[in-house]
């Protein structure tokens, strides 16, 4: 199935199945999961990028384990709303996943998600730089997924 509009995601997925959120970085993929009711997103794991196929297989295994029915992928658009190389890379990631296995995907504007997460981890949790490095990607994925879930609830 091709990438679909976020508003149509629920109609294309079975009820009571979680969704995954992804924050695609240059060297890592932050992964988050929602609960089955799609109310709360939680950080799950960070995948260190190696090669695309093994990374995708690891992601698919995590989805299968949790019976996740869709992916919400952070789309890093520019502040003016245009799409640059990072957004094109996110779109290519979704296309390449589809070549390996049918997967339902939607994009969510992730502008400033990592910056917001960094600020939260510093100001609210007072985490050191070293501790932040271990959690920022999966927390950004949860931020992305939670934003999409909140948007769908109105």
From TrEMBL:
Where is this protein found?
Cytoplasm
Q: Which residues form the YqgF/RNase H-like domain?
A: 17-117
Gene3D superfamilies from the entry? YqgF/RNase H-like domain
Record keyword Repeat present: no
Q: InterPro entries recorded for this chain?
A: RNaseH-like_sf, YqgF, YqgF/RNaseH-like_dom, YqgF/RNaseH-like_dom_sf
User: What is this enzyme's EC?
Assistant: 3.1.-.-
The entry's function note states:
Could be a nuclease involved in processing of the 5'-end of pre-16S rRNA.
| Source taxon at top rank | Bacteria
Q: Which SUPFAM superfamilies match?
A: Ribonuclease H-like
Could you list this entry's UniProt keywords, alphabetically sorted. Answer: Cytoplasm, Hydrolase, Nuclease, Ribosome biogenesis
Q: Which family does it belong to?
A: Belongs to the YqgF HJR family.
Q: Identify the Pfam families for this entry.
A: RuvX
Q: What is this protein called?
A: Putative pre-16S rRNA nuclease
């Amino acid at each position: 199935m091709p990438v679909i509009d976020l508003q149509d995601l629920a109609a294309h997925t079975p009820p009571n199945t979680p969704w995954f959120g992804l924050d695609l970085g240059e060297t890592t993929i932050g992964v988050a999961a929602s609960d089955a009711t799609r109310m709360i997103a939680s950080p799950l794991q960070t995948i260190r990028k190696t090669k695309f196929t093994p990374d995708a297989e690891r992601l698919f295994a995590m989805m299968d384990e949790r019976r996740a029915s869709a992916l919400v992928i952070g789309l890093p658009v520019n502040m003016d709303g245009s799409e640059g190389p990072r957004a094109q890379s996110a779109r290519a990631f979704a296309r390449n996943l589809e070549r390996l296995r049918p997967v339902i995907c939607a994009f969510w504007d992730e502008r400033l998600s990592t910056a917001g997460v960094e600020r939260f981890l510093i100001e609210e949790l007072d985490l050191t730089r070293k501790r932040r490095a271990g959690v920022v990607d999966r927390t950004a994925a949860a931020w992305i997924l939670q934003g999409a879930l909140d948007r769908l609830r109105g």
